[in-house]
Amino acid sequence: MKTIDGSIQPVSLVSATAALDGWAEKKWDEGVQINELEELDVLSVDTRHHMYEITIINPSTGEVLIRGGELFPRRTEAQVLGASMGGSFLKVLGIYVGLKMALMVEGRRIITSPVRCVARVHVVV
C-alpha cells in the first residue's frame, strides 16, 4: 500500500504481460506459433531448467513429439497447448521467450520453467 494525499492506494506488483491490456498489446516476435510451422519441423527449446527437442506432427492441433528434461528421456507424444505466465492467460499454440510452455501429455497438464530460447533446427536428411 502507498499513501497519496493521506489516502491509502493499492500498489500493483503484476507484470505488464500478466494484465489483459499488456497481454493484448505484447509484440509476439520472440517465439513461434506451432500452427504456422510445417509437419516434421524441429524446434530446440531451452528453458530455465531444461533443453527440449520438439518435432511437429500436426501443426493445427499442436501435436508434437518432445524429448528432453527429466520427464521426456525419449520422444514422447504431447500437445503444445501454448505459452503462459503459469496462470489464466494462454497464447494458444505458441512458444515464446519469457513464458512457460503449457503441454498436455497423457491427459496431464505440464508447465515448464520459462523459455529462454526457441529456434527452428535445420535437419539434414
Task: Briefly note the structural class of the backbone.
Answer: mainly beta
Query: Alpha-carbon distance between the termini?
Result: 60 Å
As a percent range, the share of strand residues is: over 45%
Strand order of the largest sheet: 4-5-6-7-10-11
Instruction: Work out the number of β strands.
Output: 11
Indicate the radius of gyration in whole angstroms: 17 Å
How many domain units?
Answer: 1
Mean pLDDT: 85
Uncertain ranges? none
Structure description:
- This protein has one domain.
- With 125 residues, the protein is mostly beta strands.
- It has one helix at residues 20-25, and strands spanning 2-4, 7-9, 31-33, 42-47, 51-58, 63-68, 72-84, 90-92, 94-96, 100-105, 108-121.
- The termini are far apart.
- Helix content is 5%, strand content 54%.
- Strands 4-5-6-7-10-11 form a 6-stranded antiparallel beta barrel. A two-stranded antiparallel sheet has the order 1-2.
Walk me through the topology.
Elements: E1 2-4, E2 7-9, H1 20-25, E3 31-33, E4 42-47, E5 51-58, E6 63-68, E7 72-84, E8 90-92, E9 94-96, E10 100-105, E11 108-121
Antiparallel strand pairs: 1-2, 3-9, 4-5, 4-11, 5-6, 6-7, 7-8, 7-10, 10-11
Short summary of the structure?
With 125 residues, this protein is mainly beta. The chain has one helix spanning 20-25; strands at residues 2-4, 7-9, 31-33, 42-47, 51-58, 63-68, 72-84, 90-92, 94-96, 100-105, 108-121.
Keywords:
mainly beta; six-stranded antiparallel beta barrel; 125 residues; 5% helix
